Amino acid sequence: MPQAGVDAALNEAQHRHAAALELCREQRYVAAEPLAREAWLGLQSAPTPSLEAVAAFGHNLGTVLNHLGRLTEAEAIHREAVAVAEELRVTGPLTSPLVGTLGGLAVLLRTQERFDEAEAHLRRALALAEICPDIDAADSAGLLCELGTVFRQAGRLAESEATFRRLRVQIENRLGSGHPRAADLYRELALLEQARGRHDAGEGYARRALEIRMAALGPNYPDVVGDGAVLGSLLVAQGRYEEAEPLLRHALETFDATAGPDSPMVAFVADRLGSLLAAAGRPEAAIDLYRRALRIKEAMFGEIHPALTTTLHNLAVVCEGNGGAEEARELWARAMTLLSRDDAVAEA
């Protein structure tokens, strides 16, 4: 291809990448996916794309695919972006692309519940961020928040709390209590308290996250809706179903549109709304939502992943109480198999 044609193709790829990034900032991942993919493919077809562009484009496309629930493809692209960023640091040396790509890969690994791998990448990214002047306070706080989230999801609650205490000091000293990173922190503290069964305390944190985010973004931004979904989950745990249901239904509708029907966030909300409807005596609707959450998780993780266990258990309970004894037995058997595999891995 003549040089003019190469330059035009690269410019078009850069334009699509920039448009995809803007949609990602708005968390409109369904809309961002074709643009991010076209940018990536356009860059791949160039004779000598810059390493920095490959790292940035790959990081963005991998992040989009992670949010859409396409984890296998996302991992391959994230790992390519990390490999290029490693090369860039050696030949550049530029450190900030490696920090970003390591963080993106860590988020994916956490989504897959590969917590040890995620932790290792995050610790390396945080260490690099400390010596890289191009990493600002907000990005550094995001990495630390992600590490606390990894600990929480891995059941290491004391370590999660300690990490979030450290993050709180960092936010207050460097960003301010009204910064969006403070809302991220309070959402995670809400989920941490929920994991401990302290739903009243969790509710307070969730409402604080909503307050900060609403002031900055308005009511319909996906992050605001996500905070509402966390609040709804805590309200379900307290038996306050009438308050929780509109929050969860709004979240399900929003994430269907912005992250797609097969996304991890849709599975999260479908699970919580299913619990609400089961507890409120609406088993048929609960079964539909649990089945939907299970289908999404099976597509993301396969059929023998521990992330399926809670949904299998909850669906079995509702089926058993609603005349589906045979289906319930099958679901119980699958859940017990997964628990046995998980125990065997833990003992090993």
In words, what does this structure look like?
With 348 residues, the protein is an all-alpha fold. Among the domains are: 118 residues, Tetratricopeptide repeat domain (Serine Threonine Protein Phosphatase 5, Tetratricopeptide repeat), CATH 1.25.40; 103 residues, Alpha Horseshoe (Serine Threonine Protein Phosphatase 5, Tetratricopeptide repeat). It contains 16 helices and no strands. The N and C termini lie far apart (55 Å).
Question: What is the H-and-E element order?
Answer: HHHHHHHHHHHHHHHH
Secondary-structure content class: mainly alpha
CATH superfamily of one domain: Tetratricopeptide repeat domain
Multimer state? single chain
Give unreliable regions as ranges: 344-348
CATH architecture of one domain: Alpha Horseshoe
Q: What's the gyration radius in Å? A: 21 Å
Instruction: Estimate the global geometry from the Cα principal axes.
Output: globular
On the 0 to 100 scale, the average pLDDT is: 93
Could you name the CATH class of one domain? Mainly Alpha
